[in-house]
Amino acid sequence: MKYLLAAFCLLIVSCAKTPQGLTVSTYHLRESMFQENDDQMVRGEVQRYLHGAVTVEERSQKIGQYYHVTWKQSDQLTAGLAGKTEVVFEYLQAASGSKVKCIVQRAQSPAHADAYFTIAGKDYAKNGRVLAWRVSVHNNGETLGSKQSYLWR
Hints:
By secondary structure, this protein is of the alpha+beta class. About 25% of the residues lie in helices and about 40% in strands.
């Protein structure tokens, strides 16, 4: 029985892979979150995003939405890719009408990208929250992967 359990555990561990593809993590920091919270996890997350903000004005500049984009692809699929790889973040805000805004970040390699996008401060105060977004990874004009929010057109 011990050997069967050990073989099963080995099989499970050998089948585990690092996640591949495009993942997007979102976080919305609101002013109402600044008050003390009994939940330590929520309080810790708020403090992480407020790191370095001392004055009330600095704290208000941190209010907004944060996006963390991770792109991972296997070496076999990236063997033919060369050149410049970019992560493109397109979004619509509440007060900007139908104007699509765009932020582009260069990726480290065609196989891996780790990008952070922040909509905060004056832009967030003037144009409001992000209503819809789309993230895509491009290599020499070719789209490698894409993800979008439910409300993206």
